[in-house]
Amino acid sequence: MYYRKSKNDTKMIIQDVVCHVPPPGFVFDYITGQMLETGIYSISDDPAFQKWQIPPEPDEYDEKRSEEEEKQESDPDYTDPELEAYRSKEWFRRINGFWFMNNGKPVYITGNHYYYLAHWKIDIGPPSFWYSDLQFFYFWASCVEDPRCGGLLGFDRRRAGKSWKSSSILTEYLTRSKRSLGGIQSKSGSDAKDFFQLFVVEGFKQLPHFFKPEYDRSQGDTPKAELRFFATTEKGKQARGKKKVSALNSRINFKDASERAYDGKKLKIGVLDEFGKLEDADLEERHRVLKFCIQDGPKIVGKLLYITTVEDIKNSDCLRKAQKMFKESDPLKRNANGQTETLLYRFRLPFYESYMMDDYGMPLKEEAKQKVQAVLDELTAKGDYVSVASERRKNPWNDDDIFRSSASAPIFDVIKISEQISYLSWKEPKDLYRRGNFAWEGGVKNSRVKFVDMHNGRFLLRTNEMENARQNLQRPINKHRFAAGVDPFEHKASFEPSNGANHVLKKYDPHSPAMQNEFILEYCARPQPNVFFQDMVKMCVYFGVPILCEANRIGLINYFIDNGYDEFLTWLPGQKNPGIFAGEKSKQHGAERMDNYVTEMCHTIMFPNLLDELSKFDLSDSTKYDRAMSAIWTLVAAGEISAEEDTKRTDDIKDFFKTHRI
């Protein structure tokens, strides 16, 4: 595998990155810069028996090696010709790659991949050849060779060997690089330490002697904090008579998960394990620091290998930033320097590429799909939507599954909600709505209302159909066309003050077929109370719609009444007292309506934050979900649930709508 295109190569496009594979039986020699013919290794002439197998070492290698070491005590320059030829061949393959026959087909693996398969020991012994790994190592080789690229951003399912592969890559580079640093960070300092000790150190210990450079043995064979490729300092008699060795003076260490742990350091390779699961560090800020660690001015001099499993990304802020990095690592979207925003190229495979393999390491895709689909069908039949979402994250079918939202005990259908969140995550906000504020025309209060686009506006508006519509300051003239609900904030001090939230729903309108029965406006902010009250007044006048407010939030209700806008307050049928609006049973009915709305109309909700709140909504603790409650009151207003029914019902909440159980 090599980045530079050459004559007679094969071009493979993996995840929008071009990879050039040398002609069968040839490899690119990185020492001479020439294409060399090496032939194609095969363990059998029968295609059915051709598969990956580690090329054997010379017979009785250990015994011959012992004899070689004995002779070197008196002649330090002595080498066994047969053993030296084998070692030279393995070094050549480690650097330049290897061809072998696999079920009748010639297959090329990169030098990194050969090192991993032939000499890196994992928990079950030598790794198996998987075609999914071949794609990963091809992709990584192109990232390394491309001078515009700073590394790889990878998402993998669990048990796909991400830690073994990344530790192998890190060690392979640092055991042949002079005066270089290899760094490790994970979701916490203890996780980084485990990665270092369980994967890097243990893997290094099992390498053949000819791949182990001189390293500092003063801390024993199992260093705890740093693997130093320095000569061990020996004094006195121990140092006399020994051949002076040349050391790389490189090292591999680990740091905590903090943003500035490697600030000021120059990294040859940085492995960022489980980057999608940070809890106490900012992923975006940490990457900003790490980008400088692999650059020398405009030149990229190191590489970053980001890798994470996707089964349990609970931190919503980290999930959002990981998704942002994913978008900004698209190799099809480059700046004027030919680089992505992150400097990285993103890599991910659907689960069925690495879930089940045949004897030749090729994926059994259809069998894998059937097995996982059977699990999904069983969970869906039980109504266990949380487990369905979890299973899709563990074994992602596509990019949407990687960033599928997680909910602990959803009232509403979390599958539909998360699918819509995933769909919207690929959209630009400007393609979904306009952001701005409502204002009196000419700045004159109680005049006509207009919508003004502003980058920091409090309202998100999906439609402009009302811009030239007739308005009336005395009464709502479009209550047959729209419904509005509001969840006001309380004015008392609080450690976690809530926001005021408002939504507008466009009802069925045969004269305006666009956006039927859809939410067309969202508001969620906490300005000064009078600003909030005025925002709601102007919204009502603009749409000509009355607004439904929760009963115990009387500040907004009194403002409307005291300023002559009482006609713009929704009184549920049967109500006599203007101070009594939405109550607890109306809230329960509203949740029932929202449950049905999500089931039938979730694909029309274009406000990601509303979807996020609906995925987590808890009716018994609704104060945490301002947007969700506002949308529920809007559906109550649209349905005109009677106050008489509101005061008489004593049903349990479970009587109103099904819960989506774990």
Rg measurement, Å: 32 Å
- Quick one: CATH class of the largest domain? Alpha Beta
**Tally of domains:** 2
Architecture of the largest domain in CATH?
3-Layer(aba) Sandwich
Q: Output the number of helix runs.
A: 18
* Gross morphology: elongated
Mean pLDDT: 87
The stretches of 5 or more residues where confidence is low (pLDDT under 50) are 641-662
State the helicity in percent bands. Answer: 25-40%
Compact description:
The chain has 18 helices and 22 strands.
Task: Label this structure with key terms.
single chain; 662 residues; alpha/beta; Rossmann fold; Nucleotidyltransferase, domain 5; 2 domains; 7-stranded mixed beta sheet; elongated; disordered C terminus
Describe this structure in words.
The chain has two domains: 10-231 and 245-352, Rossmann fold (3-Layer(aba) Sandwich), CATH 3.40.50.300; 429-655, 2-Layer Sandwich (Nucleotidyltransferase, domain 5), CATH 3.30.420. 33% of the residues lie in helices and 16% in strands. It has helices at 61-74, 81-96, 111-119, 131-145, 162-174, 189-205, 283-293, 316-327, 365-381, 385-394, 399-402, 414-425, 529-543, 554-562, 584-601, 608-616, 626-639, 643-648, and strands spanning 10-14, 17-21, 26-29, 34-37, 98-102, 105-109, 151-156, 181-185, 226-229, 250-254, 269-273, 295-296, 299-300, 303-309, 344-348, 434-440, 449-453, 459-461, 482-487, 500-506, 518-525, 547-549. The strands form six sheets. A seven-stranded mixed sheet has the order 9-10-8-11-14-7-15, with helices on both faces. Helix 2 (81-96) crosses helix 3 (111-119), helix 12 (414-425) packs antiparallel against helix 16 and helix 16 crosses helix 17 (626-639). The two termini are 47 Å apart.
